[in-house]
Amino acid sequence: MAIKKTTKSAAKVKKNDAYECRICGYRIIIDEACGCAEEHVLVCCDKPMKKAAKPAKK
Question: What is the pLDDT of residue 41?
């Protein structure tokens, strides 16, 4: 998995947001927002991860 930075303005990743890979099912829950000015695109299986409907329960 890789993290790509872009300068495109879009919604920032927020704490407790969940992202999942639509290919393998890998899931990430953001535990700390970085505060960067640019957008971070989470990549898995060479495709950008999509925001999941609801975060997974702990």
Answer: 85
Paired residues of 27 in beta bridges: 20
Structural domains of the chain, count = 1
User: What are residue 29's DSSP bridge partners?
Assistant: 18
Q: Do the domain assignments include residue 56?
A: no
Domain around 15: 2-51
CA 44, chain centre distance (Å): 10
The HSE-up count of residue 45 (CA atoms within 13 Å, CB side) is 10
Q: Do residues 15 and 58 make contact, with C-beta atoms less than 8 angstroms apart? A: no
pLDDT in tens, 8-29: 445 677 888 899 999 999 999 9
Q: Under a CB-based contact definition with an 8 Å cutoff, are residues 51 and 10 in contact?
A: no
